[in-house]
Amino acid sequence: MAFELSAEHQTFRTVVRDFAEAEIGPYAAEWDREHHFPVDVVRAMGQLGLFGLTAPEEYGGAGGDLTSLCVAIEEIGRVDQSLGITLEAAVGLGITPILAYGTAEQKQYWLPDLVAGRALAGFGLTEPGSGSDAGATSTKAVLDGDEWVIDGAKQFITNSGTEITSCVTVTARTGQTASGHPEISAIIVPSGTPGFTVEPAYDKLGWHASDTHPLTFSGARVPADHLLGTRGEGFGQFLATLDDGRIAIAALAVGCIRAMVDASVPYANERTAFGVPIGSKQAVAFQIADLQVMAEAAQLLTYKAAALRDNGAPRAAVKQAAAVAKLYSTESAVTATRIATQVHGGYGFMEEYPVARFYRDAKILEIGEGTSEIQRLLIARGMGLPVE
């Protein structure tokens, strides 16, 4: 079964690629060095319609599909992974939960600015004491009259501290189920809420132009109607959100691999050793051939998963395809950056060449939105194995 992009998707790819190469590519290294979040470019991405690709027209979106979002993330990520994850998190983790589970009033209040790129939203799931074990949420929210009072902490939260961040949706314990398990709900916390503190940004290995902060909540009060979806179903809502997000992360990884192909082929043709281009040597040529294989395989797996999601396939099938795409694409991206750095030799270790930046950026792809180990667990369970 083939998963060819439509003519409309191909045209859209050209539009995004032209934008990325003109507005992001020339400045990405500088933003990386300065750890600068380019808010003006983010707004320009909004004007291009990138944040509204999957949102209905009534909120200013395009009413498009997940495949379109993957195309955009791949092309942005091909020139800069930091802006790629900014887009991925803004839509997949910021907009999607509100769009999927919000009330009519919540959607009308939050989505127009988020869809237009005038604002960003964060997604607060991970905590200092719980990474892959996301169900071990310790943040608590107690209903006091007509307000939720939130106490706890979140970490590694993307788009949570920019000057245009409008809110963060967080999971919190809101009680206990009849079976004695924690009742976990999702609550929208507006930026600037007293008791909600965005801590200083992390000093990260990569994604230097992406905004990432730890968050703390100390008696933060929000109105009761900021509950997102049904009380007690927040954890399930976030897990469903992550299924789609993993497909989008796979697209970001595809962009990373494509960037390594783009960098390695001309370098191997131009760089000479022993009087000939290094690309004429099998040791180098075969490595670059492997990059192309990884790029094509990762792209096919990613767009297969997106097509299943767009065509309404059963959730179990989407979950499995998302995990496969995320696992293969992200691990291949890490390998691809290592190979491309090796092809570039000593120059690959120098920041003047983009492969060094992509090498630093790639590792987190295997960790964020579900580690490689979690993806293998999901895949094995999807195959019917009783793995724990």
From TrEMBL:
Q: Which cofactor does it need?
A: FAD
From which domain of life does this come?
Answer: Bacteria
Residue limits of the Acyl-CoA oxidase/dehydrogenase middle domain?
123-218
Location of the Acyl-CoA dehydrogenase/oxidase N-terminal domain: 6-117
Acyl-CoA dehydrogenase/oxidase C-terminal domain location, by residue? 232-383
Which family is annotated?
A: Belongs to the acyl-CoA dehydrogenase family.
Q: What is this protein called?
A: Acyl-CoA dehydrogenase
Organism of origin is Phytoactinopolyspora mesophila
